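Thread: "does anyone have the structure for this chain?"

Original post by V.I.:
We have the sequence but no experimental structure in hand. Need at least a predicted one for the grant figures.
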Amino acid sequence: MGILARSLLFVPANSWRLMLSSLRSKADVIVLDMEDAVPVGEKETARWLVREFLKEERGRFRGLVFARVNSLTTGMLDEDLDFVIREGIDGIVLPKAEVPEDVWKLEEKLLHFENERGLDEVKIIPLIESAMGVERSLDIALSSDRITALSFGMGDFLRDLGRSVSDLSSDEMELLYARSKVSVAAASAKILAIDTPFLGMIIDRKGVREQSLLAKRLGFKGKYAIHPSHIPIINEVFTPSESEVKEAMEIVKAYEEAISHGLGAASFRGMMIDRMSYEQAKSFLEVAKEIERRSAT
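Reply from O.Q.:
Generated one for you, tokens below.
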């Protein structure tokens, strides 16, 4: 599915101190946040700091670096991209994605800068934050080969429903449909699904874990975070367990043995293992291998 993204840490792009601090985090992805975390009066400062970070500090981080730019409707996107699309950036988080045209417009702008500056293809993670975005999530997920993950943001979505984070129910039932829709859309497009950050009290580690476990059950492969202390919890939840890895290895072995004998499927613990199950198990093992590699460095 392209990238390892169990944990994605939002970092305010107008704070050099927090950007440097993020280098010590165990996040798989740093997201330099030029949008919600930055007041309008500091957008220019954020652009210059992101540019300097990519030039001077990017090499110190082993994971991926994305930037959350300002949305298409703000009129600030072009200038954001001028500063951000440079050597060292891996991708863009596109906020307020509602229709495929949003992705196409961003893709056109990215292609311009890539060609102008001789850069490799920059990836895209659309952020689904509205009722319209949820309903069009599959169309958005399929809109570009650059899309490596589809993500959900609950704050603005709840506002669309006339609700707020402060009165979110304990079982988060208000988010079930939206989360499921985004997760299924991502699975259909064969990309990752990334869950909304935990927006409760920063010290509520139990809440972070419970929300992460719920997201995992719904098919999400990772989760955003707004505080570094949440990263170890999120990584733990989305890291395959030893028993899961062992089972995946056994599935791969059983299927490959069956194929070597001219069979199209295999039996494993009383269940039929077909090509799809085999590919899923292989993908699972690739994730586990990448996690192990990262842990060793």
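V.I.: this helps a lot. Residues 111 and 207 are 40 Å apart (CA to CA).
O.Q.: and The domain at 7-238 is CATH 3.20.20.60 (TIM Barrel).
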